[in-house]
From TrEMBL:
It is found in: Cell inner membrane. Keywords: 4Fe-4S, Cell inner membrane, Cell membrane, Electron transport, Iron, Iron-sulfur, Membrane, Metal-binding, Repeat, Translocase, Transport. Gene3D superfamilies: 3.30.70.20, Dihydropteroate synthase-like. Residues 104-133, 135-163 form the 4Fe-4S ferredoxin-type domain. Pfam families: Fer4_21, FeS. Its cofactor is [4Fe-4S] cluster. The gene is rsxB. [4Fe-4S] cluster 1 binds at residues 46, 49, 54, 71. SUPFAM superfamilies: 4Fe-4S ferredoxins. This is Ion-translocating oxidoreductase complex subunit B.
Length: 185
């Protein structure tokens, strides 16, 4: 009985080692084109393009299922970068998806907030802090300006404040390029 258990344990170790090696050897990575497109998109996760976030929109563009001019937060600059990357003709922003606006972040009037948590549930990037029946606040560095918190607020205590360009905020206008891509450039 003990020998059978040892044989089974040995077999399990061998199979585990083979599967571990195979997972490293045949590692499937994301599509490099999707990653490049996603790096150009503004990462607001707002859904204005008709997709649930920037990565699904990038995937749709790469697969030829979406036009490059559907992202209001990315604006004309983003469309031009996508056109250059993909070798496509520039198209103006599709007005059906919204209009280009300056970078902004949400602001909660804490005196008016009733703590309903509807804004927390709507935020795709967890940029709102608070608890039920307590006032809420925006964690500004995490806020992408998607405006998804505005509609569910029953007391209209959330406004969008334009981000003034300073040394600390200038980078919000441009996508962050991962270090591995910077060294290759």
């Amino acid at each position: 009985m003990l020998n059978a258990i040892l044989v089974m344990l040995g077999l399990a170790l061998v199979i585990g080692a083979v599967l571990g090696w195979a997972s490293l050897k045949f590692k499937v990575e994301g599509d490099p084109l999707v990653d490049k497109i996603d790096a150009i998109l503004p990462q607001t996760q707002c859904g204005q393009c008709g997709h649930p976030g920037c990565k699904p929109y990038a995937t749709a563009i790469a697969n030829g299922e979406a036009d490059i001019n559907q992202c209001p937060p990315g604006g004309e600059e983003g469309i031009r970068k996508l056109a250059d990357l993909l070798g496509r003709e520039f198209k103006p922003l599709n007005a059906e998806n919204g209009t280009e606006k300056p970078k902004s972040v949400a602001f909660i009037d804490e005196n008016t907030c009733i703590g309903c948590t509807l804004c927390i549930q709507a935020c795709p990037v967890d940029a709102i802090s608070g608890a039920a029946k307590q006032m809420h606040t925006i964690i500004a560095p995490l806020c992408t300006g998607c405006e998804l918190c505005l509609a569910p607020c029953p007391v209209d205590c959330i406004t969008m404040e334009v981000v003034k360009e300073t040394v600390d905020t200038w980078k919000w206008r441009y996508p962050v390029i991962p270090l591995k891509e910077q060294s290759a450039a």
